[in-house]
Amino acid sequence: GAVVSQHPSWVICKSGTSVKIECRSLDFQATTMFWYRQFPKQSLMLMATSNEGSKATYEQGVEKDKFLINHASLTLSTLTVTSAHPEDSSFYICSAGSHDNSPLHFGNGTRLTVT
Amino acid sequence: DQQVKQNSPSLSVQEGRISILNCDYTNSMFDYFLWYKKYPAEGPTFLISISSIKDKNEDGRFTVFLNKSAKHLSLHIVPSQPGDSAVYFCAARWGTSYGKLTFGQGTILTVHP
């Protein structure tokens, strides 16, 4: 069964609005979770690392004020896309591992469409 | 700069035959490699991994080979089944950045009955 749950699976929003995506680890506690993004016909790209109880670390080129990450508990991380624009339309996927050497488990992703 | 490359965007194989998916990397710091399988509108599912200290790892029908000198890895699926049809991503990571995976572009595998 799924060990990482992501919600919603798809969302359509209007330009200028904000969207929140939740990522939960179901069977383990995750002090660190990771947010990836995949544009059509491209690979998954790491956006940011979500750290429980502290600030997220963002990859180069990812706007931290636009993609707000909150990791308030050991099983939940949220990504909020603020003031969404059509170019933010993408497939957003979170991931987590139960310990440092374990393979990452991925959620089922969220398809965001901004109109 | 694409540090992990899968140069074949697609592969078509007959059921029962071997599927060989290839992946090349450029960053010699990578010390752990993984293969993921992905269906449309779903997240990747972990298949098999290999540490850089090994050159082969086998799990059922799946075998991953690593050639460090050539910076090349491959995934063999034997025998291939129609249910194996999906997008396959190779990924790499290094050192303490256990969660920071660098993915290839993916290869679409189609297994024909």
Considering the chains and any ligands shown, give keywords for the structure.
heterodimer, A: 115 residues, mainly beta, 7-stranded mixed β-sheet, 4-stranded antiparallel β-sheet, 11 strands, 51% strand, B: 113 residues, 6-stranded mixed β-sheet, 5-stranded antiparallel β-sheet, 53% strand
Explain what the structure shows.
The complex is a heterodimer of chains A (about 120) and B (about 110). Chain A is mainly β and about 120 residues long. Chain A has no helices and eleven strands. In chain A, the strands form two sheets. In chain A, strands 2, 4, 5, 6, 9, 10 and 11 form a seven-stranded mixed beta sheet that branches. Chain A has a four-stranded antiparallel beta sheet with strand order 1-3-8-7, with no helix packed on it. In chain A, β4 and β5 form a beta hairpin. Chain A starts with a strand and ends with a strand. Chain B is mainly β. The mean pLDDT of chain B is about 95.
Quick summary:
Chain A is about 0% helix and about 50% strand. Chain A is mainly beta and about 120 residues long.
Topology diagram in text:
The complex is a heterodimer of chains A (about 120) and B (about 110).
Chain A: E1 4-7, E2 10-13, E3 19-25, E4 32-38, E5 44-51, E6 57-58, E7 67-73, E8 76-81, E9 90-96, E10 105-106, E11 110-114
Parallel strand pairs in A: 2-11
Antiparallel strand pairs in A: 1-3, 3-8, 4-5, 4-9, 5-6, 7-8, 9-10, 9-11
Chain B: E1 4-5, E2 10-14, E3 19-25, E4 32-38, E5 45-51, E6 56-59, E7 62-67, E8 72-77, E9 86-93, E10 102-103, E11 107-112
Parallel strand pairs in B: 2-11
Antiparallel strand pairs in B: 1-3, 3-8, 4-5, 4-9, 6-7, 7-8, 9-10, 9-11
